[in-house]
């Protein structure tokens, strides 16, 4: 496998300073080298354990530290999760992600998590989980169950990280990614735009991701969902062109990764979403069942997909070039 190029901050800064029309052209050219630009993978996220998280992530309504009106729920039964996966598949999703509001899973929960993975795989869906930090043995158990992807976001740059989270270090996040990679699971890792970070911080996040020993196969780029009761509820809105620029640079820096429009997509108008596809995004979440919000139009094909000339991928991928 060809070694991915190493990026410097000056190179990434140059991309952020590039005229947008030139940046989009470069990103689209790179995207077409590795993917069918008309194909978009459709994913569904299910919160399998909601609320009462001990972490203090300032953007997250699942934290027990903030009064958001969210009621804590126990880990869902395996069959409940699989029924949601069946519904997601029937609605057009080819990828099913399961998230739990934990700092880390307990070993007593692992048999249930393994059954969920096996059941989702048996439905012919690509599987992903996001459960917090993992031990080596937990990562190995998930791998043996057949988990395709493990999501653990870096969220922002190392320099800005302490302004957002204090209960988990940046290095702990990197260590978890190493454990996932060592277990043979594909890495899903990205960040959030709109936390109050600077352009330099956005560049720093993408630099960290692209310069991992192996870049993530999946890179979710989230727009902050502002939830009343969280410390970031009154943050300024993200400029649409700034978000599109971040998508384009992620595509340029990680040309073979899936770049996913994740949280916040439902806040974007169709024109912004279409431009994100032009910038190189090739996966979306819909049928969202996370704790902070339910996405409108659940079970309906997102309008921006056909408007952009894109098609939901039928094979579980997004038209990767062979």
From TrEMBL:
GO terms assigned for molecular function: 2 iron, 2 sulfur cluster binding; 4 iron, 4 sulfur cluster binding; biotin synthase activity; iron ion binding
Chain's gene name: bioB
Disordered as annotated region, ranges: 294-322
One Pfam match: Radical_SAM
Composition bias, Low complexity: 306-315
Pathway: Cofactor biosynthesis; biotin biosynthesis; biotin from 7,8-diaminononanoate: step 2/2
Subunit annotation: Homodimer.
InterPro entries for this protein: Aldolase_TIM, BATS_dom, Biotin_synth/BioAB, Biotin_synthase, Elp3/MiaA/NifB-like_rSAM, rSAM, rSAM_sf
Species whose genome carries this gene: Klebsiella pneumoniae
Keyword field contains Iron: yes
Keyword S-adenosyl-L-methionine among UniProt keywords: yes
Keywords linked to the UniProt accession: 2Fe-2S, 4Fe-4S, Biotin biosynthesis, Iron, Iron-sulfur, Metal-binding, S-adenosyl-L-methionine, Transferase
GO annotation terms (biological process): biotin biosynthetic process
Phylogenetic lineage: Bacteria, Pseudomonadati, Pseudomonadota, Gammaproteobacteria, Enterobacterales
This protein's name: Biotin synthase
Positions annotated to bind [2Fe-2S] cluster: 97, 128, 188, 260
Binding-site residues, [4Fe-4S] cluster: 53, 57, 60
Cofactor: [2Fe-2S] cluster; [4Fe-4S] cluster
Its job: Catalyzes the conversion of dethiobiotin (DTB) to biotin by the insertion of a sulfur atom into dethiobiotin via a radical-based mechanism.
Sequence similarity: Belongs to the radical SAM superfamily. Biotin synthase family.
Reactions catalysed, as given in the entry: (4R,5S)-dethiobiotin + (sulfur carrier)-SH + 2 reduced [2Fe-2S]-[ferredoxin] + 2 S-adenosyl-L-methionine = (sulfur carrier)-H + biotin + 2 5'-deoxyadenosine + 2 L-methionine + 2 oxidized [2Fe-2S]-[ferredoxin]
Domain Radical SAM core stretches: 38-256
Cofactor info, note text: Binds 1 [2Fe-2S] cluster. The cluster is coordinated with 3 cysteines and 1 arginine. Binds 1 [4Fe-4S] cluster. The cluster is coordinated with 3 cysteines and an exchangeable S-adenosyl-L-methionine.
């Amino acid at each position: 496998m060809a070694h991915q190029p190493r990026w410097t901050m000056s190179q990434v800064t140059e991309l952020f300073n590039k005229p947008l029309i030139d940046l989009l052209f470069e990103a689209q050219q790179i995207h077409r080298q590795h993917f069918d630009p008309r194909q978009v993978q459709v994913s569904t996220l299910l919160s399998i354990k909601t609320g009462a998280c001990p972490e203090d992530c300032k953007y997250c309504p699942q934290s027990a530290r903030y009064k958001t009106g969210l009621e804590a729920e126990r880990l869902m039964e395996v069959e409940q999760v699989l029924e949601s996966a069946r519904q997601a598949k029937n609605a057009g999703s080819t990828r099913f992600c399961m998230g739990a509001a934990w700092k880390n899973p307990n070993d007593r929960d692992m048999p249930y998590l393994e059954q969920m993975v096996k059941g989702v795989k048996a439905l012919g869906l690509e599987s992903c989980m996001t459960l917090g930090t993992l031990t080596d043995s937990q990562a190995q158990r998930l791998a043996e169950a057949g988990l395709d992807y493990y999501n653990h976001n870096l969220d922002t740059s190392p320099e800005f990280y302490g302004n957002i989270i204090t209960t988990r270090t940046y290095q702990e996040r990197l260590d978890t990614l190493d454990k996932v990679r060592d277990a043979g699971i594909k890495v899903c890792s990205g960040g959030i735009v709109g936390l109050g970070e600077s352009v330099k911080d956005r560049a720093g996040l993408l630099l960290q991701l692209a310069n991992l020993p192996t870049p993530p196969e999946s890179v979710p780029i989230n727009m902050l969902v502002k939830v009343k009761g969280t410390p970031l509820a009154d943050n300024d809105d993200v400029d649409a062109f700034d978000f599109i620029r971040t998508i384009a640079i992620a595509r340029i820096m990680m040309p073979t990764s899936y770049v996913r429009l994740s949280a916040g997509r439902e806040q974007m108008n169709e024109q912004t979403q279409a431009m994100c596809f032009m910038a190189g995004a090739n996966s979306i979440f819909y049928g969202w069942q996370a704790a902070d919000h339910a996405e409108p139009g659940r079970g309906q094909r997102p309008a921006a997909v056909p408007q952009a000339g894109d098609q939901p991928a039928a094979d579980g991928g997004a038209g990767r070039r062979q």
